[in-house]
TrEMBL record:
Family under the similarity heading: Belongs to the leucine-binding protein family.
Signal peptide extent: 1-38
InterPro entries on file: BCAA_transport (IPR051010), Leu-bd (IPR028081), Leu_Ile_Val-bd (IPR000709), Peripla_BP_I (IPR028082)
GO BP terms in the entry: amino acid transport
Pfam families: Peripla_BP_6
Entry protein name: Extracellular ligand-binding receptor
CDD domains documented for this protein: PBP1_ABC_transporter_LIVBP-like
Coiled coil regions, renumbered to chain: none
Keywords from the UniProt entry: Amino-acid transport, Receptor, Signal, Transport
Domain Leucine-binding protein stretches: 41-380
Length: 411
């Protein structure tokens, strides 16, 4: 039997009251959700080598990132958001590093990856960044081909090996050297540095008289260095990692090699100089940080107060500069709008586009009037001009000082 139901005004009122209550509850839930989203931290992943062969580079780069992020959070964050750094130690393992990059993109919902000092693990993150469309700010990994051609989401803040090579070649030509010899380890940093420097010297009409490559784990380097000594070079150029670089310098001293020595930027690391001790004194190193700059001095005063004494080198500076650049891009309206909408994919794309508009970003690398230059087809930010100074090792490897280049001459 069919029974009709009479809907009275009271029933209507009751139904509308329920609907209004549900609507209000939904509205409040939406407001609370948006408020919670606005308060969610913006995630930045730091992925680097902090316990492997080049641990100093990754540790100091991460510490530089921490400095910049902590400064931003102390000032209230960006657009109502705090910044959160999730650190990963890639242990100089390309596969582990790539896995961490995937985790950052997929699980952590990171906005950007900052890291990449050793070249092999740094390179392993590039395809992950491309696949997941997550921006990747690479630090000091120097292999030239890492940004040539540029990958869509990958940007480099440190100098390329060709730039180190050009700075060394310019110095040798200026100082009158004619017979350089090169020794390098067998890893990409060593082989690419030797290749780039040989090419740069050729442009200056300077021919390398001898070149030797050694396995990074070799304990006896006297055969290679004896061959170089017998070639009678007027300067020795070394492209190592820290531990093997110390063995090169100690062996050269034991063999009474008297030619001046230039070591690549790896000699900026405390580990190399501590292991080499007095054998590192007098070594000249290319550096992209000018210790005479007042802002650089201010940075290292704060950095050393927090992390202990360090010499003024590029590794913490690159991390700091990359993080500050990231913060500047995050603050742009397009990135914040996507973040507030909870659209991480759109936020990453807007971040990538914003980085390509950093055509004159002023950091702490280079001379005072220098700046980073990025663009749609320019994902390597370090310029060729006004970027390098040379620095001298002194006091049993414990200090980096301004050199007297009038004394850096062929013997």
């Amino acid at each position: 039997m069919y029974t009709s139901r009479c809907v009275t005004p009271l029933n209507l009122k009751s139904n509308w009251t329920k609907i209004a209550g549900l609507t209000a509850a939904a509205t409040l839930a939406t407001v609370f959700a948006l408020t919670a989203r606005a308060a969610d931290p913006i995630v930045i992943c730091s992925i680097d080598d902090r316990s492997g062969a080049a641990a100093d580079t990754g540790t100091q780069g991460y510490q530089g990132v921490q400095m910049a992020i902590d400064e931003a959070n102390a000032a209230g964050g960006i657009g109502g958001h705090k910044l959160k750094v999730i650190p990963y130690d890639g242990k100089t393992d390309p596969q582990l590093t790539a896995t961490f990059a995937s985790r950052c993109a997929e699980d952590d919902k990171g906005l950007v990856i900052i890291g990449g000092n050793p070249s092999a693990p740094a390179a392993a993150m590039i395809p992950i960044a491309t696949e997941n469309k997550i921006p990747y700010f690479m630090l000091s990994a120097g292999t030239d081909t890492l940004t040539d051609p540029p990958a869509p989401y990958h940007f480099r803040f440190g100098p390329a090996n060709r730039q180190d090579a050009a700075a060394i070649a310019d110095l040798l030509a200026q100082q009158g050297f004619k017979r350089p010899a090169i020794i390098n380890n067998s890893l990409p940093f060593g082989t690419d540095g030797a290749r780039a420097t040989t090419a740069a010297l050729k442009k200056k009409n300077i021919t390398v008289v001898a070149q030797q490559t050694y396995d990074i784990n070799a304990t006896d380097l006297s055969p290679q260095l004896t061959n170089l000594r017998d070639a009678k070079p007027d300067v020795l150029l070394v492209f190592p990692y820290p531990a093997d670089g110390a063995r090169v310098l100690r062996t050269a001293r034991q063999l009474n090699m008297t030619a001046p020595i230039v070591v690549s930027r790896s000699a900026l690391l405390d580990t190399l100089r501590k292991l080499a001790g007095p054998a590192s004194d007098g070594v000249l190193i290319p550096n992209t940080v000018d210790p005479s700059r007042a802002d650089v001095q201010k940075f290292f005063t704060a950095f050393n107060a927090r992390f202990g004494p360090h010499q003024p080198t590029l590794y913490p500076i690159i991390g700091y500069d990359a993080a500050r650049a990231a913060l500047q891009v995050i603050a742009t309206p397009a990135v914040l709008k996507a973040i507030d909408a909870g659209n991480i994919e759109e936020a990453r794309k807007a971040f990538r586009d914003g980085t390509e508009r950093l055509t004159q970003f002023k950091g702490l690398q280079g001379e005072l009037n220098a700046s980073y230059h990025f663009g749609p087809q320019q994902h390597h930010g370090s310029p060729d001009a006004n970027w390098y100074v040379f620095i001298l090792v002194a006091d049993n490897g414990t200090r980096l000082v301004k050199p007297d280049l009038s004394k850096f001459k062929p013997l």
